[in-house]
Design a protein that fits this description.
Length: about 120
């Protein structure tokens, strides 16, 4: 029974990781509503960092049993962010790729790698 629960949890993490990846892709390519009650300059950079932190940490947690993959996952998440920024410029006329978004995405990935390494560091 315990083995079954562990397998279900592992499969659930994989499904969550895939859902976050697809959701991030979708949110990055749709037209976002304009304005709001108040606007904070460059707050979207914090959103980018958080989104890519979440993306990277869930993929790292999904494959935490194979720590040799953590750098590959980290690099793939950064490349994913770069590809999305390029796709925004190529596929849409309402979104543009931004180097600062790529940097924010990469910082979010780096923080996730750091947090993951702290959690699973070997004693």
């Amino acid at each position: 029974m315990l083995r079954r629960i562990k397998n279900l949890l592992k499969d659930s993490l994989l499904l969550i990781a895939i859902a976050i990846t697809i959701g991030l892709l979708g949110l990055s390519l749709i037209k976002m509503p304009e304005g709001g009650v108040f606007e904070i300059n460059n707050i979207d950079k914090a959103y980018h960092g958080f989104a890519y932190f979440s993306l990277t940490i869930i993929w790292l947690l999904t494959f935490h049993k194979t720590p040799q993959k953590k750098y590959l996952i980290f690099i793939c998440c950064i490349i994913f962010g770069i590809i999305i920024e390029v796709l925004q410029t190529i596929l849409t006329n309402y979104r543009t790729g931004d180097i600062m978004d790529i940097i924010s995405n990469s910082v979010g990935c780096l923080v996730a790698l750091f947090v993951f390494s702290l959690i699973f560091k070997k004693n």
